[in-house]
Amino acid sequence: MPFNLDGFEAFVPIVDVDTAPAAAGVYVVVRRVSCPPVFLPVSSAGRWKDNDPTLPITELQRSWVPDEPVLYIGSAAAGGTGQRGLGTRLDELRRYGTGQAAPHEGGRMIWRLADRAQLLVGWRLVDDPVAVKQDMLDEFCAMHDTLPFANRKR
């Protein structure tokens, strides 16, 4: 049974995240096809702090959650001035995936998918994104006995 995404909005292609608001929230990266993934030999992601984003294929295979469209759960705070939020965080995700040195190593495994350009991002505005993300990860783990594919830690 797929993870519940009630309350999430937008679901735009990952390359079109510029419509995300500058507000606190949580976001999900989803893959709408159910066929098995094809993993690329090298990641398209950038190097942040000179870390190589390419992980072993065996780790990707071991982390894959069959029949689950949610690949990654993330959060974005509004920042001290209230101008950061989802818009900035999702732009960092997009830039990181296109090979730029952007600060978004979380979710880096999605950039090894051959169909990564077809991934969608949805978001939900919340007051406490860190707590809501933790609740979502706990709920996902209760359903699947593991984290989402591209979440490496709780």
Verbal overview:
It is a single chain. The protein is an alpha+beta fold and 154 residues long. The protein has one domain. The protein contains three helices and four strands; from the N terminus they run ββαβαβα. It has helices spanning 57-63, 85-97, 129-144, and strands at residues 9-13, 25-30, 70-76, 120-125. A four-stranded antiparallel β-sheet has the order 1-4-2-3.
> Radius of gyration in whole Å, from Cα?
14 Å
Distance between the termini: 21 Å
Sheet with the most strands? 4 strands, antiparallel
Which class best fits the helix and strand makeup? Answer: alpha+beta
- Helix and strand element order: EEHEHEH
User: Number of helical runs?
Assistant: 3
Gross morphology is globular
Helix content: 10-25%
Total of domains: 1
Task: Give a short summary of the structure.
The chain is 23% helix and 16% strand.
Structural topology:
Blueprint: E1 9-13, E2 25-30, H1 57-63, E3 70-76, H2 85-97, E4 120-125, H3 129-144
Antiparallel strand pairs: 1-4, 2-3, 2-4
What characteristics describe this protein?
4-stranded antiparallel β-sheet, 154 residues, alpha+beta, globular
